[in-house]
Amino acid sequence: LTSSTNWTEVAAFKLHNGSFAHGLPPNATTSLIFRAIYESARQTIPSAVTNALLLPASPFNYASPALPARFLQPPIPGQDNTPATNLTTDAGATLGRVLFYDKRLSTNQTVSCSSCHLQANGFSDPRQFSVGFNGGLTGRNSMGLSNARWYQRKKFFWDERAATLEEQTLTPIQDPLEMGMTLPALTNRLAAEPFYTNLFAQTFGTPEVTAERISKALAQFVRSIVSTQSKFDVGVTTSFANFTAQENLGRQVFFGQVGSATCSACHGSDNFVPGSGIFNNGLENPYVDKGVGVLTGLASDEGFFKVPSLRNIERTAPYMHDGRFATLEQVVEFYDTSVVAHPNLSSPLLVPPGNGAASGTPLRLNL
């Protein structure tokens, strides 16, 4: 308007995350007056899936993704940590995805799971340490989530303190530094949104919002984050004719076909995961962060950390539990020349018996 009477409504909005910004249209010839108002009488606008979320008309295929043939052959099926009590469904993973990106999961609605697990970075964090809801920094680097479904040991976090992925999903939400919520506060907050009760009903048959259902849905979404179309996957089907000579040499070094590297001992199968093992990779002695040893208090557990999949590894810098290495070149240089002697150093990183005085010392790859 050009005066303060006879207002005309331009648009009406229902806010879902507690903040609002809206651009004003430019006008080259007339000075206009704009105002934003709140009307209590109009707060009955339904918060339904159709007007609250940008979901596809048909859900994505989370339940039965197309997997390469080798993913259906041993040892990969035995690495799958999906429990029989929480099989991935299209509706469940859709709900999990909505939860994953929702800042309402933090007490002041400023961070979501995706704040520390960015899709563009292989669902990891490009910062050395992640920023919590109140600005504090985490003590460890945020691990990438690609192909978490195939972590055979089933445990999660760098120190494996969560026995299952379902248990892991609720821990950052309740952490006083990361998201700062309580489970009762979270379930009450989500249950107040009709679109959430609709999604819970679609997934579980009834609209009740519970912590167990939240954990199951988030776990389903995380297990649906699957990488199977890399250059390596194409190479598997073409005898690696798509690789350059340098890439093929790197592949041969990685799998121990050339030289003395033992990379595949800890990053095996087409998922590049550790199988049943957990390892001490000789980062330092003594360890500042003792890994599993922090939990058990045992010297024999010092320096043991979960070995992540190498899927999307180019996207997930920085590297190691403390993000000490900024590049993959630094990681390779460490394993080539700088593994530190430690009483718990894992055997693939030791010179094997029968090599004289060098036996049992940190392996030097001489790349």
Task: Explain what this protein looks like in three dimensions.
This protein has 367 residues and is mostly helical. It is built from 13 helices and 2 strands; from the N terminus they run αααααααααααβαβα. It has helices at residues 49-52, 76-79, 90-100, 113-116, 165-174, 183-191, 194-204, 211-223, 231-236, 245-254, 263-266, 292-296, 328-338, and strands at 279-280, 304-305. Strands 1-2 form a two-stranded antiparallel sheet. It starts with 48 loop residues before the first helix and ends in a 29-residue tail after the last helix.
Report the helical percentage: 25-40%
Q: What is the gyration radius calculated from CA atoms?
A: 25 Å
Ranges where pLDDT stays below 50 over 5 or more residues in a row are none
Q: Distance between termini?
A: 73 Å
Per DSSP, what share of the residues sits in E-state strands of 2 or more residues? under 5%
- Name the strands of the widest sheet in spatial order: 1-2
Number of alpha- plus pi-helical segments: 13
Written as H for each helix and E for each strand, in order along the chain, the element string is HHHHHHHHHHHEHEH
The count of strands amounts to: 2
**Sheet having the most strands:** 2 strands, antiparallel
Mean pLDDT: 94
Which structural class should the secondary elements be placed in? mainly alpha
